[in-house]
């Protein structure tokens, strides 16, 4: 088991990790005219420029709606407060936009834990599973990778963490597992918070 008490740089996925899952990805794909199970951002990026603009505008409309509906995941405020108390640096890396990430953080009462420049969306860094966003945050913080953590609920979060050589934590509410990309697996944020005291 990885000891988390020495980790000082925490990067979180947002939707489904710090928030309760609200996105209906099947509906989003349907609205965008995409095939089931394709990666939405990759599929949009493969379209001609004019089609990309139209699809991204519709995606923005949908994401604005979902961001406003965001509800805090169980234990999120307790976890972030504990990390803040421990003087940790906290960042967000999301495939959402910066604007909607801030809207979601406001909706769940967690905006005050994150500096705006430490909230990276798909326009600030290549989308996960790319490690670019993690590396940007670590460079901003002048942080050693061995003291950094990537926390997420999906395979792309964990793959990004692996690619950046930081500790990966899978918040697994849906009983999905990617053991090759996971250092620690927890069922909720209360469980993760408890590990900070171990």
UniProtKB/TrEMBL annotation:
<protein>
    <submittedName>
        <fullName>HAD family hydrolase</fullName>
        <ecNumber>3.-.-.-</ecNumber>
    </submittedName>
</protein>
<dbReference type="GO" id="GO:0016787">
    <property type="term" value="F:hydrolase activity"/>
</dbReference>
<dbReference type="InterPro" id="IPR023214">
    <property type="entry name" value="HAD_sf"/>
</dbReference>
<dbReference type="InterPro" id="IPR036412">
    <property type="entry name" value="HAD-like_sf"/>
</dbReference>
<dbReference type="Pfam" id="PF13419">
    <property type="entry name" value="HAD_2"/>
</dbReference>
<dbReference type="InterPro" id="IPR041492">
    <property type="entry name" value="HAD_2"/>
</dbReference>
<keyword id="KW-0378">Hydrolase</keyword>
<dbReference type="InterPro" id="IPR006439">
    <property type="entry name" value="HAD-SF_hydro_IA"/>
</dbReference>
